[in-house]
Amino acid sequence: MPDSENPATPVTFPPAFLWGAATSAYQIEGAVREDGRTPSIWDTFSHTPGKTIGGDHGDIAVDHYHRYRDDVALMAELGLGAYRFSMSWSRVQPTGRGPAVQKGLDFYRRLVDELLAKNIKPAITLYHWDLPQELEDAGGWPERDTAYRFAEYAQIAGEALGDRVEQWITVNEPWCSAFLGYASGVHAPGRTDPAASLRAAHHLNLAHGLGASALRSVMPARNTVAVSLNSSVVRPLSQDPADLDAVRRIDDLANGVFHGPMLHGAYPESLYVATASLTDWDFVLDGDLELINQPLDALGLNYYTPALVSAADVSAKAPRADGHGASDHSPWPAADDVAFHQTPGDRTEMGWTIDPTGLHELIMRYTREAPGLPLYITENGAAYDDKIDSDGRVHDPERVAYLHGHLSAVRRAIADGADVRGYYLWSLMDNFEWAYGYGKRFGAVYVDYATLERTPKTSARWYGRAARTGTLPEVEAV
């Protein structure tokens, strides 16, 4: 009897299933002025008054740049089989142009060697939102040239590490870079131009395609190239035709704008129609869609919570409950007449509803959308208000329950025919949570920000047990 039908059946994963954790460079590395690194847009944004809670920034973060050996040892102790991390573009290629700085590349060489020595598979993400500031000064992602600069950077990284790293991801969550960075302004670089955000989305797609080609031109054929999308599960408030139309429009902006050209070589026609008041899409040049539509070896899916939408009266001013930060400017271009609603249920510290059924739904959608394409859950996790107890431990049963629910949803999807090959917990450890500063803890490992001491939480031990056995321990077994 399948796991989904018998809760007493142990939730067991395929033997080759990859158990990992994920981080990103600006959130953990620190050392922002060392070894030739130049500022990224997140350095500039986080040092701009009022942009982050408490004025927090990533100058030190959790000092992974200097503590990576201890962090890798901790991963090995927990039993992780894989580690997904991003490279800092401006650490590798300061200003986003010209030759690499070997000291920057050497850090990633040392990190990779340390992981391999501990039998932990490295997975590199080339871009996790930290565009070199000089490229933003030249126009940023709304400018076509940025995609070509990314391809050069991808080739540098592939030449340096492609002999030892087999799993590569071009860009992470391009939706956030395009629409939170250039439409709502809650992420770096903090611009609020909806037309520019659509240009940024296209050039991020182009960067993915060019970057994938650049990687393959310099790496062994055994290596895999993927992309990580934070595709949304968009649900209607009702079955009213206007609400169903709202779902389609948000689905185009959240999903189709990226997976359309990446997987199918075309943007949705309905997206062109819906955004015609902002742009005629003349920045999509002949041949672009072919460049973007590179064959993928895998698709990364990042999932946290579903979206609930309906049609709305544009004259009614109400807070936008889409979970993407407070701003007078929407991250949804030409969709001001769509309302977002809080979905029912328990929530994390981010205010995001806990709903593992959304992860199952997302996996099955892409199983149909791209049959035969292996899938990885490249981010999934939860923020809670974790505290160190008097016994020096951090008990987080809510996160354990969250992980059990979502990993069970992954296993149900596998039983339903999905080719899901691995799961990367977000995040390995507490870190700089973008505009929220250090106030939101996503880590399985607790970080004391005063001392930078690491303490594995209950969830880290639970997840490590799952990784070692391939079977989910009971939630109570913590």
TrEMBL record:
Record keywords, A-Z: Carbohydrate metabolism, Cellulose degradation, Glycosidase, Hydrolase, Polysaccharide degradation
Origin: domain of life: Bacteria
SUPFAM superfamilies in alphabetical order: (Trans)glycosidases
Annotated active site: E379 (nucleophile)
Reactions this protein catalyses: Hydrolysis of terminal, non-reducing beta-D-glucosyl residues with release of beta-D-glucose
Documented EC number(s): 3.2.1.21
Pfam families: Glyco_hydro_1
Top-level EC class: hydrolase
A GO molecular-function descriptor: beta-glucosidase activity
InterPro entries reported in the protein's UniProt record: GH, GH_1_N_CS, Glyco_hydro_1, Glyco_hydro_1_AS, Glyco_hydro_1_beta-glucosidase
Similarity comment text for this entry: Belongs to the glycosyl hydrolase 1 family.
PANTHER family documented for this protein: GLYCOSYL HYDROLASE, LP05116P
Name of the protein in its database record: Beta-glucosidase
Organism: Streptomyces tibetensis
